[in-house]
Amino acid sequence: MDRVFQLAAERPVVMFSKSTCCMCHTIKTLFSDFGANTTVYELDEMPRGREIEQALARHVGAGSDFPVVFIGGKLVGGANEIMTLHLNGSLSAMLKRAGALWL
């Protein structure tokens, strides 16, 4: 999990994803529409992606789904949490504070 937190701290928005996950695609599109600078790690395309996936499952919860999103180095959660932030209007401010948006 140390490696996950290290990767999450290197960029304003870090998303651990799977290339075949429809909710991952939805959240990537949302961040793109915001113009957010998002770093995406496609775990199913990484040599050690399975290890990272297992570490995330242990930390976030075994039943958790992808994506797993960090903003400003802090774990925000998955698609439900990101969509809740978006719908209540706080996602944009959070992205700005993290330095993911230039506006």
* Biggest pleated-sheet summary: 4 strands, mixed
* Assembly state (oligomeric): single chain
**Number of E strands:** 4
Strand order of the largest sheet: 2-1-3-4
Topology:
Blueprint: H1 2-9, E1 13-17, H2 22-34, E2 38-42, H3 49-60, E3 68-71, E4 74-77, H4 79-87, H5 91-98
Parallel strand pairs: 1-2
Antiparallel strand pairs: 1-3, 3-4
Structural key phrases:
5 helices, 103 residues, single chain, alpha+beta, 49% helix, 4 strands, four-stranded mixed sheet
Give a short overview.
Helices cover 49% and strands 17% of the residues.
What does this 3D model show about the protein?
Pfam families: Glutaredoxin (PF00462). The protein contains five helices and four strands, in the order H-E-H-E-H-E-E-H-H. It is globular, with a radius of gyration of 13 Å. With 103 residues, it is of the alpha+beta class. Strands 2-1-3-4 form a four-stranded mixed beta sheet, with helices on both faces.
